[in-house]
Amino acid sequence: MDNSIYATLTRQSGLMREMQLVANNIANLSTTGFRKEGIVFSEFVEKLGDDAPSLSMAGARGRLTNQTQGVLTQTGGQFDFGIEGEGFFLIETPDGQALTRAGSFTPSAEGELVTPDGHRLLDGGGAPVFVPPDARAISLSADGTLSADGTPLTQIGLWLPGAPEDLTRRDGVMFTLSAPAEPVLEATVLQGFLEGSNVNPVSEIARMIQVQRAYEMGQGFLDKEDQRIRNVLNTLGR
Q1: Distance CA 211, CA 119 (A)
Q2: N or C: which end of the chain has fewer CB within 10 A?
Q3: Distance CA 135, CA 114 (A)
Q4: Is the pLDDT score of 69 beyond 90?
């Protein structure tokens, strides 16, 4: 197969992956705490011979999560927490601890704050956050201190990965760490607020159009190359 076809095929594969990520971003425009994702293209250059030109191919193996702050929307819910600034909530899942910016919690039957999927919220010491069932008023201060009827209960911790590459997306709003998280010292937690998705619909749709056009150009080249090879084979076969 011609080197130009190999190079185009690798590019087409990367563009297809980017289109899938853009479509997923658009699908999560209204998902609380969602972080949009992009793809990182890399170039591989192979020397073909002393007198031959090198072969360059594109690879799309890296994924990049955009950590731009989403818009905070007031809900009035006493167990809705929004982070203003850096940091993630630490939650406990059956597969281990995870980080999230989605701050919608509810008390479980045992009085522990959990996510909509039932994962427990953890405090600054890594223990589950417990709320007394008979508490009449729950308040959260800006530093994460949770109180019931004026009595402090615990402090909700905010965490960050030691390095950006330590953070891996598990699903839409949850991330796992390959190294221990570090506490965030300067951040604000707001009660009665939720952070929305940081996806910009206009820029994502524009990006989808660009990727689609680039893919169509590559497909057009492959179709022409296929026809050229067929013509050559037909000519030689006569």
Answers
A1: 37
A2: C
A3: 17
A4: yes
Residue type, position 62, single letter: G
Q: Which two tokens stand for residue 145?
A: 């201190």
- AA letter at 108: S
Q: For 183-202, give the DSSP string.
A: E-SS-EEEETEEE-----HH
* Helix-, strand-, coil-residue percentages of the chain, each rounded to 5: 25, 35, 40
Element (H, E) at 99: strand 96-100
Cβ proximity of 152 and 160 under 8 Å: no
Closest among 17, 37, 27 to 168, alpha carbons compared: 37
Query: Which residues have a Cβ under 8 Å from the Cβ of 42 and sit 6 or more positions away?
Result: 58, 59, 60, 61, 62
User: CB neighbours (10 Å) of residue 173?
Assistant: 22
User: 203, 26 in Cβ contact below 8 A?
Assistant: no
Say if residue 3's pLDDT is above 70. Answer: no
The yes-or-no verdict on residue 67 having pLDDT over 80 is yes
Q: What is the DSSP letter of 233?
A: H
Whether the predicted model's global pTM rises above the 0.85 cut: no
The string of pLDDT tens digits covering residues 83-111 is 999 999 999 999 889 999 999 999 999 99
Question: Which among 63, 59, 27 has a CA at the least distance from the CA of 44?
Answer: 59
What letter represents residue 182's amino acid?
E
Contact 195, 32 (CB under 8 A): yes
108, 91 contact by CB (below 8 A): no
